[in-house]
Amino acid sequence: MSILRRNNVRVTGRAAGRTVVLAHGFGCDQNMWRLVEPVLAENFRVVLFDYVGAGRSDLSAWREERYRELDGYARDVLEVCEELDLRDAVLVGHSVSAMVGVLARAAAPERIGSLVMVCPSPYYLDEDGYRGGFSAEDIDELLESLESNYLGWSAAMAPVIMGNPDRPELGEELTNSFCATDPGIARVFARTTFLSDSREDLRSVTAPTLILECEQDVIAPREVGAYVHSAIPGSRLVTLAATGHCPQLSAPEATASAISAFVSDLGR
Amino acid sequence: MNAGKGGPGGGVPGTDAAFSALLEDSAEDLYESAPCGYLSTLMDGTIAKINATLLGWLGLSRDQVVGRMRFGDLLTVGGKLYHETHFAPLLRMQGHLGGIALEMRTATGSRLPVLVTSTVKKTDGGEPLLIRTTVFDATDRRAYEEELLRARRAADEARRQAEAERERLHEALAVLQHSLLPAALPDIPGMETACYYHTASASRLGGDFYDLFPLGGDRFAFFLGDVCGKGPQAAALTSLTRYTLRAAALHDPDPVANLSILNTVLLDRYTGDDPRYCTAVAGVLERAGDAVHVHLASGGHPPALVLRGDGRVEHLSTRGGMLIGVLPSAQFVPARTTLHPGDTLLLYTDGLTEARTGDNRELYGDEALESFAAGLAPARPRRVVEALTGLLHGFGDGLDDDTALLALGLPSRTDRTGRTDTGSTTSA
How many distinct structural domains can be found in chain A? Predict the structure, then answer.
């Protein structure tokens, strides 16, 4: 199975433009980008993919040993970059993928030239002198709810996709794939996401970096955005007039134009 | 019913009043006191309207909630995360989302499992305006799901344990099975040996056995046999038989004496209503210059075959040898032969000759085996075992018993000059 099929890679946009790779976060897949992708595609070459275990990736390639570490996800990114032989690409990572991007950039700076972090959080736990937004009890409860809720988690999502008369473009091709995560895989991804501490990794980021945060985000609060901004020298922080953890859906225009402005400023 | 006359219930005394009462049920009251929770939020999640039912479930007052809390604030941490990563994105995309399991946090800190359905209300211009949400108490459903989950975990655990148990049993069986057969045949200078073993039992514990071992000097002892029955009981008998014959041969090389000792041991061990017996050929090989003298004895076992270097096939008659372990005064019949270069001695169990073949499922039989051997001869031991293994595989499901083959021979002079290997071959 080729990497392109394994990760359900899709390449769109202006072939001559700078390459922008869009990496989805926990809980969904590349469809997360569907509202910003057309805007970015006007000026850039856009690469979309699903991590193994998500969306329409090859689930048979999923191995717990690999995907219980953020490194495993970073290897997915790198393998996609290698397969397409990308040079100096912009990696746009949503949520946990922002930290995956840091790891991928460190491993292959020639392939990933700059980073856009959408609602990033290097560490979710509150600690002395750091506010991640979640107490240890919160995280326990969260993981436990993933453990106990998997009937709803898996069964509730699939039927939702079917029959959607208002949005015919979300037609059959999405049935059972969008956000309908295998519960076992979702549990491993959640553990990796919420128990990883990537704060140290931020300090070594030398790439031009744009941080996008929302005014209100229960998963990555403003303090975390400020932390990431101060930890990465020379980074740019933009606060979007949006709520929630997914500005690419709640404020797609603002998100796309912030990314476009950053990428255009990179020059060349 | 008076369907034809007037309004609903027209003509039936009392129903008019009932329907009037229903009409008194204002939309406002229906909203506030509905048997499910209602709330409306702005697109950023801020709660703009909530009904009394849901406030009651949550133990919150309207003032605490409206304009102050977002929908996510009503949820547990797990619920919040699910809402942010699945619910809200899907709702944005689709405008509608139904039957999603979430958990709410009440004022007392307890959790309320709910099923949530949301619809985005849009302006005439198609801009999203607000989100309308209904909330159903799913406590009972959640309890039921948890029961299912518990049952599933218990089943998973039981399956894991059963697999581990099976694995342990498998290992124990493998150890036992190895104790029944030699791991490899010993090298005998100047001779070639080959063997084959097939077990029909699912537990892979067979009732056939063979062995070949040094007695010191130029002498080696061998035996091959078949105990009654299959599976674990047969294996226990096999074990006793094998170690008895080994010990007896080391003590006294006379094959008839060895079978007699085995007879005594079996009679002593299996008494009363559990008689157990076996058939066996046991013998000794003794080097004499270029040749090897074979002295063997049989108790109830099919005759050994000798494939001569000149192409003839002889069977070593041991007619009259009796089953071992049945009668205290059992007679065992000796036979002698000498192997010259090019000769091969073949021992086999009746799994081979009693296999069912052809459309009529007839026994393969002694004569067929002799002609098959005649077709092969002259042939060195490896070639003989190879050819017979192919024959056995050809029987398919007609081979329903354990089968053992042991071939011992002296390579012909041309074999010896043409080829250097004289080691043993085990095909199993």
Answer: 1
